[in-house]
Specification:
Arc Repressor Mutant, subunit A; Alpha-Beta Plaits; 5 helices; 4-stranded antiparallel beta sheet; alpha+beta; about 170 residues; about 30% helix; 2 domains
């Protein structure tokens, strides 16, 4: 669900695959996306609900693993100036084992097994060119890595960690 630049929450498009979440739940999620620390009292006032109703709905969504409120760090704000995608070909070892090893690197924030000419796609950050070289050397040394195909982002146009297509029509 996209919240307009004016903060307005758009109407939902009745998607039935949303794990028991209704329009009120989606509106609560939209407000928490805008400000994850928004008090339940303020959410209740915005939506015309009681604070207890908001609290119980948030608890229910958390228990159902439909909602998780977390802090997200801006990688540039903590000193990482480079983002890169690394395609990895695997040889002589199971791709899922290699992927688990790659996921253990602190600078790697996403690891996916993929189909095609590559076996794994990883997203990572580096502080500078020296850090990038070191990271790539360490990734290449993981047992089973045959080939790395790194691509450094020149300009990041979108990096939206909270993206989920709630309420969008097909």
């Amino acid at each position: 669900m996209n919240i307009g630049s004016d903060g307005a929450i758009p109407p939902l498009a009745g998607d039935e695959s949303n794990q028991g979440m209704d329009e009120v739940d989606f509106r609560i999620v939209a407000l928490l996306r805008r400000d994850g620390r928004m008090p339940y009292k303020a959410i209740a006032a915005d939506l015309g609900l009681t604070e207890a109703t908001v609290r119980s709905r948030v608890r229910r969504m958390e228990e159902a693993d439909s909602l998780r409120v977390v802090a997200v760090t801006d990688y540039e704000a903590v000193g990482y100036s480079m983002m890169l995608a690394v395609g990895i070909q695997v040889e002589g070892r199971a791709a899922d084992e290699v992927a688990e090893d790659l996921a253990s690197f602190a600078q790697v924030f996403s690891v996916c097994q993929v189909v095609g000419t590559l076996d794994i796609e990883a997203l990572a950050v580096a502080r500078d060119q020296e850090d990038l070289n070191q990271l790539l050397s360490e990734l290449a040394a993981v047992p089973g890595v045959r080939k790395l195909e790194p691509s450094v982002a020149l300009d990041v146009l979108k990096n939206q960690s909270n993206w989920v297509p709630f309420g969008q029509a097909d």
